Amino acid sequence: MLLIKSIFQIEIDSDMGKITLKYILFLVSWCFITTAQALTLSEIELKSYLNQALDARINLSGISAGQLEGLSITIIDAKPGISGQRPVVLDYEIKNDGSGHYIQLTTNAVVREPVVTFTLELSWSEGRLLREYTLLMDPKY
Question: DSSP code of 98?
């Protein structure tokens, strides 16, 4: 505060003047703040049941068109969680439904285990994100 006073040659004697100066400095500093968007992944929306091909969706937010072009997605260790059967082969596609981008996850084969666990790795020019998902698949009634 003393440095600012000496730069601008401001003499403040009252408490009201100190409050006003703080308010002005706050507003000036607010003008220089840059916004930062961070890529985030939503919870997974499971649209299929046990003994069906997997159909799930993960919403992406905070992503620009430039980041989307350089986005690399890797699915790590997709496996059933209980019996240790062979790994589940997950396919993905980035789609846009008008309200935003999302990752569509599917399988060609039927999922016969009620628990599927996988890690999703997203890499782009500005960072990297890892997130683990566990799916509990209910039987269709």
Answer: S
More confidently predicted of 58 and 83 = 58
The sheet with strand 72-80 has its strands ordered as: 72-80, 115-124, 127-136
Would you state the pLDDT for residue 3? 47
- Pinpoint the alpha helices (H) of 41-136: 65-69
Alpha carbons within 13 angstroms on the beta-carbon side of residue 6 total 3
CATH of domain 40-136: 2.60.40.10
> Tokens 């997130």 appear where?
131
Element (H, E) at 4: helix 2-8
Q: According to the model, what pLDDT value does residue 14 have? A: 57
User: ∠ CA(44), CA(115), CA(105), 5° rounding?
Assistant: 40
Exposed, middle or buried by CB within 10 Å (0-12, 13-18, 19+), for 9? exposed
Query: What is this structure's pTM?
Result: 0.69
Per-residue pLDDT of 1-57, as tens digits, reads 444 444 445 555 555 556 676 777 677 666 665 545 578 999 999 999 999 999 999
